[in-house]
Amino acid sequence: xxxxxxxxxxxxxxRLAATHNYGYTGVPTFEFDDERAEKPWQxxxxxxxKRGAHLNNPIRSVPSTLLVxxxxxxxxxxxxxxxxxxxxxxxxxxxxxxxDDASKFSEEAALKYLARIVGDEPRVSGTPYHLNQTKxxxxxxxxxxxxxxxxxxxxxxxxxxxYFHQSSSSFYNVYENASNIVALLEGESGFLSNGxxxxxxxxxxxxxxxxxxxxxxxNAVFCAIMAESLNRLSRSKQKLKHNILFLxxxxxxNGLQASHxxxxxxxxxxxxxxxxxxxxxxxxxxxxxxxxxPRVLQAYHRSAPRPNAQGMAEFIFSNGIIPSDTDFRIWRDxxxxxxxxxxxxxxxxxxxxxxxxVTGARGGFAFNRFLLAVNVFKFRREIK
Length: 384
Prior knowledge:
One of its GO terms (molecular function) is metal ion binding. Its cofactor is Zn(2+). It is found in: Endoplasmic reticulum membrane. It is a multi-pass membrane protein. By secondary structure, the chain is an alpha/beta fold. It has helices at residues 12-21, 33-37, 40-49, 64-86, 107-118, 128-146, 216-234, 257-262, 294-303, 311-318, 328-335, 364-379; strands at 152-165, 171-185, 200-206, 243-249, 271-279, 287-289, 339-345, 351-353, 357-360. It folds into two domains: 28-87, no CATH class; 92-379, Zn peptidases (Aminopeptidase, 3-Layer(aba) Sandwich), CATH 3.40.630. Helix content is 38%, strand content 18%. The strands form two sheets. Strands 1-2-4-3-5-7-6 form a seven-stranded mixed beta sheet, sandwiched between helices. β8 (351-353) and β9 form a beta hairpin. α5 (107-118) runs antiparallel to α6 (128-146), α5 crosses α7 (216-234) and α9 (294-303) packs across α12 (364-379). The termini are far apart.
């Protein structure tokens, strides 16, 4: 017998409708049929081409094909960028360069200088091995001077001094018997009547190293490039407009001491411009930064076929983001030299045999930039 107070049960169809109205999941509805019929890429394209507030709605899925294409383009762009970054001139053998040809650079000859400078142990300033390598470097430059067509003077400077190193943690830097080897390639400016040196371009590298590395890239490779550059330029029949001072400073890693010591040398008073050569890391092309005279940068830009400069490098070093410093600070703060700029080299294609012996290097690109810089100073009237 039916209870009059008990409500009658709903029909089955109405129960399903009520269930759907409560939003149970898994119940098929017609509102999503069109979306299921579309391909994933069609939904992406349709969402991007429509106008309206739907643009703020998230895309539910991205097709795998599109991801593969984007990833492929990204990898291709990275590969092409690396090809451009690693593009270096072919190696020139010593026999391929004429004796009096000052326009070409022999990597084979520079490699011999590099192996000789690097030696077998770290060249830490103040150690017996550093002294031994300093003597050998002086002999090497004297041999170049003997075979030169132009006048080349060499000198071994030993100096003592101090200076105030102003930085985030300032200190007094005191040094004793800091060692420098200097080679002077005499140009048209020569020596003045009073015996002082005429206008000169100072080219700087350092041959010392940190205690835990041989320092082939930082910075023996640039010393080798400078030695071969001196060898080539000194055999030219034509004099350069300015003298060139090749400074192989022996104490850069311990607080830029040798560059400050060189300011006591009589030849330092003739320097009107500085090309500072240093290294960091093991990848990339030579880049110019830390320019104190915009006229030099303009001349470099007009003269270089492919000028390479990085504002980011300037920003990083000037703001102390990387705790590193170069001899640039000495020339700027204490030398008062107007045409001061740095080449920072990353990767001279230095190869080692077992981490000890240097077996290969490409320095032609750096030499071409260095020779170009010399020619910039040679022809610019602003540099006096």
